[in-house]
């Protein structure tokens, strides 16, 4: 199996994991509000990642000490953008809107990432990849405007919530571009992932204690169900540590613009849980849009896979 194929399989797994994440997040909000949810998630994630990083990569601390002030700042900034900013905006947005609206808006990230990859990283996008990107984006638009097609308002959820999700999507671009540069300086995917969650835990903890008293936080934990705790564990270890590690690993093998096209598939995986867990209605426009997204991804990746096979 070629490195390119392995990267695509890893990204497909990430797309499925993050597609399942939106409904998981939504059903947990009655027990853990966004700031507490994220701080809790970051805390149990770093309990695994810090010992794992020090064990598998014992030279990590020495390598971090050798970073220049500018590189250290970029490493912190990437962690902050990828955790507290991006995930914070996503969680607060999902608290106000539907998972289906939120997931498809979040799926527009490949468009922004592709533009950033071309502008900041000087990456090249072939005409077939660009066509696949456009087709997938059209599919996303079909899903986003489905309420309008059904005679409803443009967004079935809160406009503010959708705006927050979109803002989080844009901040994700900064995380991708900076970490791509850091990878070129041989900072490993595991270290980047661990850094993101450590920075996230520290910065989100400040927000948590600004918004809540210790007694309020204790009450949330006491009243939370086992299902809510299980959801946080999923978000910490599967949607968090595993998915971000696979994403960084795959990004090291292919260009960021190509890597993010596959992430258009996330809303397709969101559908089953949104329907069965949350009772959100799956409409014909949503189904059509999802099929268009899949077509765009296949269109782009088929060309890439074939060209890599020939070479």
From TrEMBL:
Transmembrane segments: 31-52, 73-92, 104-121, 130-149, 155-178, 190-211, 226-247, 259-278, 284-302
Topology with respect to the bilayer: Multi-pass membrane protein
Chief place where the protein resides: membrane
Compartmental location: Cell membrane
Keywords: Cell membrane, Membrane, Transmembrane, Transmembrane helix
One GO CC term, this protein: plasma membrane
EamA domain boundaries: 7-144, 160-300
Full protein name: EamA domain-containing protein
Keyword Cell membrane (UniProt): yes
Entry keyword annotation includes Transmembrane helix: yes
Superkingdom of origin: Bacteria
PANTHER family xrefs: INNER MEMBRANE TRANSPORTER, S-ADENOSYLMETHIONINE_S-ADENOSYLHOMOCYSTEINE TRANSPORTER
């Amino acid at each position: 199996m070629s490195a390119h194929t392995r990267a695509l399989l890893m990204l497909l797994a990430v797309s499925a994991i993050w597609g399942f994440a939106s409904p998981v997040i939504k059903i947990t909000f009655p027990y853990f509000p966004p700031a507490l949810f994220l701080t809790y998630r970051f805390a149990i994630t770093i309990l695994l990642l810090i010992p794992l990083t020090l064990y598998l990569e014992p030279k990590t601390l020495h390598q971090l000490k050798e970073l220049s002030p500018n590189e250290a700042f970029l490493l912190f900034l990437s962690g902050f953008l990828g955790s507290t900013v991006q995930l914070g905006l996503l969680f607060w947005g999902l608290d106000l809107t539907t998972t289906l609206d939120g997931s498809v808006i979040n799926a527009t990230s490949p468009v922004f990432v592709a533009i950033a990859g071309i502008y900041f990283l000087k990456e090249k996008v072939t005409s077939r990849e660009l066509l696949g990107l456009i087709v997938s984006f059209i599919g996303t638009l079909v899903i986003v405007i489905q309420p309008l097609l059904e005679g409803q308002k443009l967004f079935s959820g809160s406009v503010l919530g959708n705006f927050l999700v979109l803002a989080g999507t844009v901040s994700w671009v900064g995380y991708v571009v900076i970490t791509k540069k850091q990878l070129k300086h041989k900072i490993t995917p595991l270290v980047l992932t661990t850094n993101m969650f450590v920075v996230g835990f520290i910065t989100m903890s400040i927000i948590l204690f600004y918004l809540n008293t210790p007694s309020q936080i204790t009450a949330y934990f006491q009243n939370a169900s086992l299902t809510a705790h299980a959801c946080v564990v999923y978000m910490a270890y599967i949607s968090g540590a595993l998915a971000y590690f696979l994403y960084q690993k795959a990004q090291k093998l292919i260009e960021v613009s190509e890597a993010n096209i596959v992430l258009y598939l996330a809303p397709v995986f969101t559908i089953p849980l949104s329907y069965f867990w949350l009772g959100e209605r799956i409409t014909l426009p949503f189904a059509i849009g999802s099929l268009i997204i899949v077509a765009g991804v296949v269109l782009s990746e088929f060309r890439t896979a074939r060209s890599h096979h020939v070479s």
